[in-house]
Amino acid sequence: MNILVLGGAGFIGSHLVDALVGQGHRVRVFDLPNVSTYNLQKSFDSIEFINGDFENIVDVLPLLDDIDVLVHLVGTTLPGTSNANPAYDVETNIIGTIRLIEEAVHKGVKKVIYASSGGTVYGIPEQLPISEDHPTNPICSYGITKLTVEKYLKLFKHLYDLDHTILRFGNPYGPRQRIKSVQGAVAVFLGKVMNKEPITIWGDGTVARDYFYIHDLISAFVKVIESDTPSRVYNIASGRSTSLNEILAVIGEVTGNKPIVHYNAPRKLDTPVNCLDIARAQKELNWSPQVSLREGIQNTWEWLIKNT
Questions:
Q1: Of 66, 86, 121, 178, which sees the most CB atoms within 10 A?
Q2: What is the pLDDT of residues 166-204, one digit of tens each?
Q3: Measured between alpha carbons, how far is 135 from 125 in angstroms, rounded to an integer?
């Protein structure tokens, strides 16, 4: 198939591009001007790579020519910072995506795969684990914009029969994830340990998330790209919650270095626990995570040592 990956030079996108090229698909990648293509070095000679501005429809229009499947991984904000400027979040993520979906319909794109957020669209859990039918009450702008795009995809299915699948995933981690960021606890913590720097944690470290290895996420993406899906929305994660303190303990064991930790006051945007119910994906996609937390952190640490 001809597949367009928006945001394909990033952490998730580059792993997906490698997998799709390996499966024999023709892949077009779109990302920001001047973005580093280091993550794509394995597949760069086998793809069509285009730079541009996601918010500029003139840049986006040519991307959709002769495309069968569109994978939307672009995001301009992060959960931890989105509440600081909700208007920017809406303008850059929702408006740009609606224009994109409209043009995808006009250009005859057969299917859209959208990367949503299982960590933010549900809000504070009413029960655990969180199934796809759980109420959606996000407490950060990032989650609201993700949920809004989901609603528009549903509308475009109703209006134009646009096929789509939404993946609400937990907290993926692994090689190529940035160590200097405000998102991605595993990679950031490993980077701090490697550089012998203190780790800042908001709260007492009991905040728990559903962490899972990048290759497990990519296998889910490939399944929904290559086959019809009975449902429109799937949780993709490990199916268990792990606290930041537990992450720190595993990192200490893997690296042989005890992390230096500073605990600060908790943030209002952080839900205490997030754990996704992955039964639907297991049943309908025949998908399950394969990599344990320790193995995944070990793989990530070894990659950092070799590539940093």
A1: 121
A2: 999 999 999 999 998 878 999 999 999 999 999 999 999
A3: 8
Paired tokens of 280? 């639907």
Domain 174-209+239-274+291-307: give its CATH code. Answer: 3.90.25.10
Active site residues: 142
DSSP-H helix ranges across the chain: 11-22, 57-60, 86-89, 96-107, 141-160, 185-194, 214-226, 244-255, 279-284, 293-307
Lowest mean pLDDT across 2-6, 209-213, 262-266: 262-266
CA–centroid distance for 58 within its chain: 26
Same fold, 2-172+213-236 and 174-209+239-274+291-307: no
Q: Are strands 208-209 and 242-243 parallel, antiparallel or unpaired?
A: antiparallel
pTM (two decimals): 0.95
Token pair in block for residue 254: 């893997």
Residues forming a β-bridge with 169 = 117, 236
Domain ranges of the chain: 2-172+213-236, 174-209+239-274+291-307
Torsion sign (Cα): 9, 13, 19, 20 = negative
- Per the listing, tokens 């945007």 go with 269
- The fold for domain 2-172+213-236 equals Rossmann fold (3.40.50)
Q: Are 43 and 109 in contact (CB under 8 A)?
A: no
CA angle 298, 299, 304 (to 5 degrees): 95
